[in-house]
Amino acid sequence: MNPATEPDSVRLSLDEVHDLTRDTLLAAGLGAPHAFAIARSIIRAQADDCHSHGLYRLLGYVDSVRSGKAERDALPVLTRSTPVVLRVDAGRGFAPLAIETGVPALIEAAKTYGIAALAIHECYHFSALWADIEPAIEAGLAAWCFTVGQCCVAPAGGNAPLFGTNPIAFGWPGPAGRPFVFDFATSAAARGEVELKRRAGEALPPGWAIGPDGTPTTDPAVALAGALLPFGGHKGSALSMMVELIAGPLIGDVTSRQAKAMENGDSGPPLGGELFIAMDPAVFGAETLDQRLADAEELFARAKAQPGVRLASERRYAARTRSRDGVLIPARLLAEIRALPR
Amino acid sequence: MNPATEPDSVRLSLDEVHDLTRDTLLAAGLGAPHAFAIARSIIRAQADDCHSHGLYRLLGYVDSVRSGKAERDALPVLTRSTPVVLRVDAGRGFAPLAIETGVPALIEAAKTYGIAALAIHECYHFSALWADIEPAIEAGLAAWCFTVGQCCVAPAGGNAPLFGTNPIAFGWPGPAGRPFVFDFATSAAARGEVELKRRAGEALPPGWAIGPDGTPTTDPAVALAGALLPFGGHKGSALSMMVELIAGPLIGDVTSRQAKAMENGDSGPPLGGELFIAMDPAVFGAETLDQRLADAEELFARAKAQPGVRLASERRYAARTRSRDGVLIPARLLAEIRALPR
């Protein structure tokens, strides 16, 4: 699925990716507000060369529309427990529309009170977390988001799946125009990466996974039947547990294991919640804000000045610039999408 | 400094550790409110077998009193930017008294509004983060804290110190009586661990550090002159950058590099800030709270049921129980403390 390794790729404009996504979802029967929100989500990932969250995701979205798992017309409902604890009930629809509903209110609450949380409740989440928080970062906030992923990760030292891939994204409103935003699975690899390796017929690097018998494997298919491992040993494992707790029980959503038990076996995302936290540096001290943002800029500059160091998201911004001239889509994927029943 | 490997250890009661700490600090000239708060902080670490943050720390505290670095009588001042953004100005005193001043207000704000932040400003931080957040966890909250550590960690791929050891602690109010609390450096090891290895004459495991020339080393002294490495490659490195940003520029405090430039070379802690964030699960949905806490308990139980899996903090709670009968202090350390000028 990586165009660099795919024999045939087709160049599409981002508008073409957007319209293909929207029209495919509408043809599958998804309500227009969701189809448009998902199209916006997918082109952002595709533009940044995040193939695992780009057009490739459309197959799973369509699958979950057709299987009846995702509500086609659920309109997200925003409520407030307090001025700084916001909630969007996604009504078992896809996440992008719910996120678009909640994030502007989160930004406003964080700018007013300095810190705020947003829980997206009962959604099918299939988007990239960096894209979910980017609007908050662009509004001048520091922000996190967390969601559970598919239940396929064993705790450090364990032998069977208990955690999701449980990604964490964090962003800071600088450097200007190209803010520092990271987004990584707390597993050694994202499940999407393992799926792409399987599709490409490539072996996994050692340390990514164990098989169903609990022993290490480099075979993607065996890994998908067994369990991925957390990154960074017991520290990554603790972070994965943290994500289960705060994107699950804290906000009243399912753990990844509970979501798995409810799965219908289609290729779409599992049910789950998503927690956003945003903070406004200005509220922590408006009079010193410029100096503090400059201190952060200096930190970024010093990191980049070390040979071999690359800031999180630099590769994505470079891809975003290139993508003004269009993006490369594997011909095989495009054929698969175009062959979907209409 | 690990009693298990020290030839001679002396058993002291926790009261004796407390009084020794307090009296040593008072004799060094530290104000009584600080001496008592530090004594409370040190016995908590010592009781949980956290030797690197236990009585061993007293040497550094005394050093920073005698060198004049830490303000001996600074009384922390609590202010509120908004109802959910709290700040304690530590006035360049030690952190424990500032934390004791701020955390009760943080708990109250989180219980009222669902989420709140507390910035401890301009403190000398030498305590264990798990102990800093434990009161919030025991009050029924989920909470984080973050602080920069000594600037001795190179970014992933880099060749020179830029980050502190930048620990992250997170806790959840369960399992009951023995809550899940993790606390780890975002470096492959804590600097305290490297110092203990140096004192014990032991080599470092591979992957912990690079020397001043940027190449890997297992010599603790060479590592202390060079740089530690982040845990978990670029993911741990991104988390370390995150801690620099939120415990530094976000709250108006120094980055670890800025703190290092201000250091006077004593063996005490660097100047810095500390950020707490606390969330109340009850505010995210009071009517479903019992079920959600039960969901979390099930997650913990399923993790522990896997052979080879141990929950964060279990070892500490086991030590805490044992420590009712006293704690083992290396005779060499005790002699060093008792030999301090009075």
Describe this structure in words.
2 copies of one chain form a homodimer. Chain A is an alpha+beta fold. Chain A has 2 domains: 9-69 and 325-338, Malate/L-lactate/L-sulpholactate dehydrogenase, four-helix barrel (Hypothetical Oxidoreductase Yiak, Chain: A, domain 1, Orthogonal Bundle); 77-286, Malate/L-lactate/L-sulpholactate dehydrogenase, NADPH binding domain (Ribosomal Protein S8, Chain: A, domain 1), CATH 3.30.1370.60. Helix content of chain A is 41%, strand content 19%. Chain A contains 12 helices and 12 strands. Chain A has helices spanning 14-28, 32-47, 57-66, 95-113, 129-138, 191-200, 220-225, 233-247, 256-261, 289-305, 314-322, 331-338, and strands spanning 9-12, 77-82, 85-94, 115-124, 142-147, 168-172, 180-184, 209-210, 216-217, 227-228, 271-279, 327-330. In chain A, the strands form 3 sheets. Chain A has a 7-stranded mixed sheet, with helices on both faces. Chain A has a 3-stranded antiparallel sheet with strand order 9-8-10. In chain A, strands 1-12 form a two-stranded antiparallel ribbon. In chain A, β6 (168-172) and β7 (180-184) form a beta hairpin. In chain A, α1 runs antiparallel to α2 (32-47) and α2 (32-47) packs across α4. The radius of gyration of chain A is 20 Å and the shape is globular. The model of chain A has no long low-confidence stretch (mean pLDDT 94). Chains A and B meet through β4, β7, α8 and α10 of A and β4, α8 and α10 of B.
